[in-house]
């Protein structure tokens, strides 16, 4: 293991972010406004239910209202869209989060696109993605934003570095690639059809793992001194990188759990407070 390997503590970063929100929440409360995040869960996927519960608990601890909307597995796309439309016009709701994934028979993209831009605190709409790519999104996707927040908190360099992103999902791989590009990194995006993946990953000064496969990224794929950011979360609290092996090579690495995850939730809370502030200004 590299002697100076830095463990990027997501809990510490998240705590700092939430501490900064306390005064802003109080100012809103003084105006009679309680920031409110509506979370929508469709079906009975246990992992999704756990995520929603974690987000609700985080809201409660900070003084943000959590409005849970739960639908059965057989809910139709039209029923889900109607519920989102009701939340869009509810003045007490400032942020809307549709828990991914939804059951396969639902048109998830159509549901995402229904979310009002003013309340898209998870950055899932097409317009939100476009604004993020251009560098001026109010609410960029939470996990990509969390990755950059960790790098900034630890003052890790981005400009001029070669970042390799493994994964191209519209709410993680693609937006984090755009955010790194906007910070003047040179970005390579890898995916399931990439050939010679290991050798491409070895070029990365920054490696972002967002592939959804446990321990997929191997230690011998990592360039000595690279920064490894593991955005994966698989059954058994396992990330997308082989943590022990990759830590041997990396200069800095996020653990799983207690890495990117807590900062993702803190970012969601931050966006919800910001949405409430914008609504208060209007």
From TrEMBL:
Q: Which domain of life is it from?
A: Bacteria
Q: Name one GO biological process term.
A: L-histidine biosynthetic process
Q: Which annotated residues bind NADP(+)?
A: 167-169
Instruction: Give an example GO molecular function.
Output: methylenetetrahydrofolate dehydrogenase (NADP+) activity
> GO CC annotation: what is one?
cytosol
Write down the chemical reaction(s) this protein catalyses.
(6R)-5,10-methenyltetrahydrofolate + H2O = (6R)-10-formyltetrahydrofolate + H(+); (6R)-5,10-methylene-5,6,7,8-tetrahydrofolate + NADP(+) = (6R)-5,10-methenyltetrahydrofolate + NADPH
- A Pfam family for this UniProt protein? THF_DHG_CYH_C
Family to which this protein belongs: Belongs to the tetrahydrofolate dehydrogenase/cyclohydrolase family.
- Pathway per the UniProt entry: One-carbon metabolism; tetrahydrofolate interconversion
Which gene produces this protein? folD
**Domain Tetrahydrofolate dehydrogenase/cyclohydrolase catalytic intervals:** 8-122
Domain Tetrahydrofolate dehydrogenase/cyclohydrolase NAD(P)-binding, first and last residues per copy: 141-278
Show the Gene3D superfamilies listed in the entry.
Leucine Dehydrogenase, chain A, domain 1, NAD(P)-binding Rossmann-like Domain
* Keywords recorded for this protein, A-Z: Amino-acid biosynthesis, Histidine biosynthesis, Hydrolase, Methionine biosynthesis, Multifunctional enzyme, NADP, One-carbon metabolism, Oxidoreductase, Purine biosynthesis
Q: Could you say which EC number(s) this protein's record lists?
A: 1.5.1.5, 3.5.4.9
Oligomer and partners: Homodimer.
Name the UniProt record assigns to this protein: Bifunctional protein FolD
What this chain does, per the entry, is described as: Catalyzes the oxidation of 5,10-methylenetetrahydrofolate to 5,10-methenyltetrahydrofolate and then the hydrolysis of 5,10-methenyltetrahydrofolate to 10-formyltetrahydrofolate.
């Amino acid at each position: 293991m590299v002697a100076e390997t830095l463990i990027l503590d997501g809990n510490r970063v998240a705590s700092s972010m939430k501490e900064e929100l306390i005064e802003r929440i109080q100012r809103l409360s003084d105006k009679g406004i309680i920031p409110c995040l509506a979370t929508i869960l469709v079906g009975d996927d246990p992992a999704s239910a756990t995520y929603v519960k974690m987000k609700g608990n985080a809201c409660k601890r900070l003084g943000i209202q959590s409005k849970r909307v739960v639908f059965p597995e057989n809910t139709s796309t039209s029923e889900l869209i109607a519920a989102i439309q009701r939340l869009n016009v509810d003045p007490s709701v400032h942020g809307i989060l549709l828990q991914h994934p939804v059951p396969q028979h639902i048109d998830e993209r159509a549901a995402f696109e229904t979310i009002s831009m003013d309340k898209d605190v998870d950055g899932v709409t097409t317009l939100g993605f476009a604004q993020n790519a251009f560098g001026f999104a109010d609410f960029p996707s939470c996990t990509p934003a969390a990755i950059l927040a960790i790098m900034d908190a630890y003052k890790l360099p981005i400009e001029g570095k070669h970042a390799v992103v493994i994964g191209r999902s519209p709410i993680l791989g693609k937006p984090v690639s755009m955010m790194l590009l906007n910070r003047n990194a040179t970005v390579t995006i890898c995916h399931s059809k990439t050939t010679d993946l290991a050798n491409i990953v070895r070029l990365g000064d920054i490696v972002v793992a967002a592939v959804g496969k446990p321990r997929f990224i191997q230690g011998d794929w990592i360039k000595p001194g690279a920064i490894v950011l593991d955005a994966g979360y698989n059954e058994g609290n396992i990330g997308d990188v082989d943590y022990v092996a990759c830590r041997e090579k990396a200069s800095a690495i996020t653990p799983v759990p207690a890495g990117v995850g807590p900062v993702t939730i803190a970012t969601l809370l931050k966006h919800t407070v910001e949405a409430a502030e914008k609504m208060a200004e209007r």
